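lol ok so funny story. i was supposed to be doing the assay writeup but got distracted and ended up predicting the structure for this chain instead. priorities right. anyway since i did it might as well share w the group, maybe its usefull for someone
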Amino acid sequence: MSDEKFVDPRLQAKEGIFQQLHLSTFDTMGYAHEIIQEVNDSGKDIDEDNDSYQQLLRDYQVTKNVAPIADSPLALLCTQTDYHIENSKQAHASISQLCAAATNTLNHWRILAEIPKDLLDVEEVSSQLKQNYANHLAAWHRVLQEFEPTNKMDKNKSNT
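and the output, tada:
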């Protein structure tokens, strides 16, 4: 008997995109880690022209534009994220964490969207991906919630 497992040919055909999206997730985590490390080392926020910060902004925009999010709950999260990127008074390091969480969630959404529907319920195929997606989505929600007090204060300031 062989230890080899059967892999559905439809999944094998998409292996390239799966690898690309997984690598993108690791790159995103690397950029976010570099920013955290810089903030920890310097004790201050990063500059707007920080290479990792700019890369996270670009990666988020590209990923958002290619992810199949129309008519999904992620569309609203992207709208909220776009608003915070454009209007937030938050530190650049905080915006970078928002972009990282959003990009990783969108990458996992893209992977799940590539899996044939009849295989999504097969635990060996999608359970870990679904768990990773849920974890990244929860992180995205947490970062967005952290931005809310600033928005409420900004609104209060503009009303006074």
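The two ends are 76 Å apart (CA to CA). The chain has one domain: 20-116+127-154.
back to the writeup now i swear
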